[in-house]
Amino acid sequence: MSQPPNYQLFDQQPLRLRLQGDWRFVDGIPAIEELFSRLEGLADGQCLKLEGETLGQWDSGLLTFLLKLLQWARDHSICVDCSDLPEGVCRLLHLAGAVPPQPGRRRRRRSDPILTRIGNVTLELHQTWQDALRFIGESVLCSGNLLRGRPRFRFKDLLELLEDCGAQALPIVTLISLLVGMILAFVGAVQLRMFGADIFVADLVGLGMAREMAPMMTAVIMAGRTGAAFAAQLGTMQVNEEIDALITMGIPPMDFLVAPRMLALMTMLPLLCIYSMFMGILGGGLVSAAMLDINLTPFFLRIQENVGLQHFVIGVVKAAVFGVIVALSGCLRGLQCGRSAQAVGQAATSAVVTGIVLVVVADAVITILCQVLGV
What we know:
Elements: E1 6-10, E2 15-23, H1 33-39, E3 47-51, E4 55-58, H2 60-75, E5 79-84, H3 87-98, H4 105-111, H5 114-147, H6 155-165, H7 170-192, H8 200-239, H9 242-248, H10 253-291, H11 296-306, H12 309-335, H13 341-373
Parallel strand pairs: 2-3, 2-4, 3-5
Antiparallel strand pairs: 1-2
Helix pairs in contact: 5-10, 6-10, 7-8, 7-10, 8-10, 8-11, 8-12, 8-13, 10-12, 12-13
């Protein structure tokens, strides 16, 4: 039969608090405010001894009561002796006090004035911009070592990265490129068939895949696949202090880790882009053959006659630029990663977002430049 929880306070020196009965939520926990009012008369520096010899069953209700009492004692400079409590209670109290609660950052930021928040965001952007510029500068110096024929990485690592960035990405690039080409042809077929201009679907698919869709979609795929992988790899090395070990041994992480990744993606992304162009055009040809009765042979001949080689070259150049952007975004976020598992996930997410945003911005800039130059 359960006994109701209660306590008994002995005000003789040393001051003692005896816990009795079953301290469980289902039995009801005594209000602690009455105990606080009785302890108010204690002078600072007094010691309160907790006794648990007559304590019955207990659960987290007892721990909640004791944590409030310990917090109140700390606020009033009163020492508390828990040595007579059951061992399980002592361990849980120690565990609860090992990690002090931290006020939520979000709640603290909400209470900040708007000018303070604007200032903090401005400082963060300024610091991010400085870090990005420093990283780009170090990447340029690293590229200089490559051009002088003095690489400081293992070619075995480069070959593995080339395989990971190239051959292993073919299935997803094939699927996405084929579907994008089919979608382009389907949209064009619906509209052009109204004017009897069915054959111009070939021009639409060829030009669209060569100049825009193939390099853009390939870069987006690689940002989500390889850029995130780079950030996660380097972030995990940061957590395991492997990058610190490289620096200690005099091996620059930029040369040993970033350079092979940048070189691999710069090499493989243009090749994947060429493959994506072919698969997209093939997808458009299949839709044209199914909807417009235009066979693959006249479809490809039409593209050969009306889509110049310069459009394919522009697409390949874009892909090379996008490869550098995706590689730098992934490596930058990986090296900026904190030293926790949560930080690794955040670094991977940030690498994908940064890579895609910069790819779109770079595509817009290159497109405008091509229009200005009349290419």
